[in-house]
Amino acid sequence: MKVVSLHHLRAPCKTEIRKMDETPFGQAEVFYLNPKVIIRKGVTGGTIFTPEMAFLYADSESLELLAGKVIKAKDLPNGAITILCDTKVILPQKPEDFQPTIFHVEHDALPTQVLLDVTAACNCDCFTCYHKTDLDSYVPSLAEVLQRIEKLKDLGVYQFEITGGEPFIRGDLNIILQKLLDLKLHFYVVTNGEFLAETNPEIISLLRHSLGLCISLDGYGQVHDQNRQRPGLFAKILKGLERIRKDNIRILFISTMNELNVDCFPQMVRLAEEYGTTVHLRPTIMAGGAQLNGVKNVNLAQRFPHYLQDPHVRNGLLATRTKIAEARYYGCGIRKRISVDARGALFPCVMDRSRAWGDIMAYDQQSILQELDRETTDFLNLNKMCRNCSYNKEEILCGGFCRFSQVFRKGG
Fold it and tell me: Which span out of 189-203, 295-309, 369-383 was modeled with the highest average pLDDT?
C-alpha cells in the first residue's frame, strides 16, 4: 500500500526527500472514507482529491481499499494512514451511508486542477495581477462556461478554481457553481472581496458545499487598497468577512508578497488568526502586472523568519523548504495545474500568459497529455541541470525549476 503527495513544486535535486514511513500503524483503529473525497482511477494507480485542497497519489491496492469505505488500519503502513488522516481522506467517525465519487480516466498524469476564468472583467487594477493583459472586460456566455466545465471533467480535471477577473461580477455565478456541484466536482472561488457583503443567499448556500472562498489580500488597510487601486476595498472585505463567518464558509487569504506590502505582513497574519484561517504566501513572479510595474520581490524568510512557522501562515516560499515529503511528481507544476481564460484558450502555465494554446474544447485526454509532455520536455531541455535528470529516465517525474525562478535563469 502506497499513498504519498501527488506533487511537490520543489525539485528533488534542491532538497532532501523524506520517504514514507512503511512501518505498521499498529493500533487497532477503524477509519471511514470521507464522502467529500473524489477518487480518480487511472491505469497504474490514481489520484485522491481531498477536501483540504491537496492531491494524493495512491497505488491500485490503496484505491481498492478506500473504495470499500471502511479501513482497518492496524497492519497498514503508518505513513499512508497518517497522510490520509491529515488530509481528511479518512475519518474516525462513520458518516451516513453514501456511494463514493469515483471517476475513471484512460491515462495517468492528467492535470488535476484548472484555473477557470469565468470573466475578464474586474473592478480592480492590481499592481501585481498576472492576468493584467487579459482583463479586457470580455464576459463569455453562460453556455460557453458550462460547456468548458463539462469538457474539463471529461479531461479528468476535477478541481476548479473559479476566478477571473472578478467572478462575483457575473449575475449567473450561482448557475455555474450549481453545475459544478451537480457534476460532483470540487471547487473554490477566488475573489477580491468587494461584493461579499451583498452576495445573494443562493450563492452563499452553494459556497457551503465548496472547498472554500479565497480572498486576495495584498496588504492591510490603505496599503491593500493602494496595491489594488481600489479605494475602500479593504473595508468592504472586512464587512464581507463578517457575513461569511456567520455562514460557516471556509476562508483562505492569498497574499502575493513584495516590497509594496511586506511591512503589513504581521497585521495580515493577525487578521488570519482573527478569522481562524491561514494566509497563503506567494512570491511575486515577474510576469503580468508585476513585470509591467517593476514590483520588486522580498526575502520574507530573512525579514520575518519566525512567522513562516506560524499555524496561520501557509508557506508557499519554496526556497525555505530544506526537506519535503515523498511525492509522485516534483518540480514545475505544468502537468498538475492548467488555466483556461475567458475566451476558452488553454494555458499550460498558470502564471505565463504569453503561451496560449488552442481552445480547450478541441482537446481529449490523449491530446492534452501529449501537449503537456511536449511542453515539459522542451522546457526541461532549456536547463542544463534538467536535460539528463535521473528522475525522468522512464517517464517525466520532475518538471524542473519554475521558469520565473532565479535557479532556472541561472541554469541551475
Answer: 189-203
In a domain, 378, yes or no: no
Q: How many angstroms separate the CA atoms of 195 and 295, rounded?
A: 27
pLDDT at position 316 is 65
In the predicted model, what is the mean pLDDT of residues 103-115?
Answer: 95
Is residue 130 a contact partner of residue 330, using CB atoms and an 8 Å limit? no
Check whether the bond before 276 is cis (ω within 30° of 0). Answer: no
Using CA atoms, how far apart are residues 143 and 141, in angstroms rounded to an integer?
A: 5
The answer to the question of residue 127 being in a domain is yes
The per-residue pLDDT for range 58-100, each reduced to its tens digit, is 999 999 999 999 999 999 999 999 999 999 999 999 999 999 9
Rounded CA-CA distance 90/94 in Å is: 10
Q: Is residue 403 part of a domain?
A: no
Residue 120 and residue 30 share a domain: no
Q: What is the DSSP letter of 97?
A: P
- Reported residue count of the chain is 412
Last residue of a domain, one of 66, 82, 104: 104
Q: What is the pLDDT of residue 122?
A: 96
N-terminal to C-terminal alpha carbon distance within the chain: 35
Nearest CA among 163, 184, 92 for reference residue 350: 163
Give me the amino acid identity at 88.
Answer: K
- Of 286, 320, 340, the domain-final residue: 340
pLDDT, tens digit (0-9, with 9 covering 90-100), for 314-363: 876 655 667 889 999 998 877 789 999 999 999 998 888 888 899 999 99
- Please say if the pLDDT value at position 183 is more than 90: yes
What is the C-alpha to C-alpha distance for residues 378 and 373, in angstroms, rounded to an integer? 9
| Residue 97 burial (CB count, 10 A) | 7
What's residue 130's pLDDT?
A: 86
**Above 70 in pLDDT, residue 129?**
yes
Nearest to 50 by CA among 83, 80, 84, 89: 89
In 100-226, beta strands by DSSP E: 101-104, 113-117, 159-163, 186-191, 212-216
Residue 63 grid coordinates: 484505491
> For the chain, how many structural domains are there in total?
2
Give the amino acid at 132: K
Flag whether pLDDT at 146 surpasses 80. yes
> In terms of residue numbers, what domain contains 99?
3-104
CATH number of the domain enclosing 127: 3.20.20.70
**Gap between the Cα atoms of 2 and 60, Å rounded:** 9
- Shared domain for 187 and 331, answered yes or no, is yes
Instruction: Tell me: do 121 and 81 sit in the same domain.
Output: no
